[in-house]
């Protein structure tokens, strides 16, 4: 059975929220090794071998995904950077592209 079929036919949703008190307001990259290590231990505790991992953690998210993909044990997962689209779903105008595209007014048609 393909990974795509497994993702579609089985309900596999796990929400992992990193403890925010570890993350610095400034220089968020300082905590990235700790974030990766804790996430790796979480993935190891779950019974499935393949995951679609949705990342929404700002600029540090790109570093997080790169570190995870470069590790041979964790590169079999699909990493998706949801990023600032999360703000659109919450109805918040936090980025220039959100205002310029007027997506908050159009989102009622796509949601």
Task: Characterise this structure.
- This protein is mainly α and 111 residues long.
- The protein has one domain (3-84).
- It contains six helices and two strands, in the order H-H-E-H-E-H-H-H.
- It has helices at 3-9, 32-45, 60-70, 85-89, 96-101, 103-110; strands at 52-55, 78-81.
- The chain has a two-stranded parallel ribbon.
- Strand 1, helix 3 (60-70) and strand 2 form a beta-alpha-beta unit.
- Helix 2 packs across helix 3.
- The two termini are 31 Å apart.
What order do the helices and strands come in, and which of them pair?
Layout: H1 3-9, H2 32-45, E1 52-55, H3 60-70, E2 78-81, H4 85-89, H5 96-101, H6 103-110
Parallel strand pairs: 1-2
Helix pairs in contact: 2-3
Strand order of the largest sheet: 1-2
Structural class: mainly alpha
Number of domains: 1
What are the low-pLDDT stretches, counting only 5+ consecutive residues below 50?
A: none
Average pLDDT value? 75
Counted by DSSP, the helix tally is: 6
- Spell out the helices and strands N to C: HHEHEHHH
Which sheet architecture does the biggest sheet show?
A: 2 strands, parallel
Beta-strand residue fraction: 5-15%
Give the termini distance in whole angstroms: 31 Å
What's the gyration radius in Å? 16 Å
Note the overall shape.
elongated
Number of strands: 2
Helix content: 40-55%
């Amino acid at each position: 059975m393909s990974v795509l079929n497994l993702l579609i036919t089985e309900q596999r949703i796990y929400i992992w929220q990193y403890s925010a008190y570890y993350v610095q307001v400034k220089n968020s990259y300082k905590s990235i090794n700790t974030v990766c290590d804790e996430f790796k231990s979480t993935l190891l505790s779950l019974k499935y071998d393949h995951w679609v991992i949705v990342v929404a953690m700002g600029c540090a998210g790109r570093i997080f995904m790169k570190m995870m993909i470069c590790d041979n044990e964790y590169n079999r997962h699909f990493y998706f950077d949801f990023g600032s689209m999360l703000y659109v779903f919450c109805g918040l105008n936090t980025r220039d592209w959100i205002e310029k595209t007027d997506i908050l007014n159009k989102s009622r048609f796509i949601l």
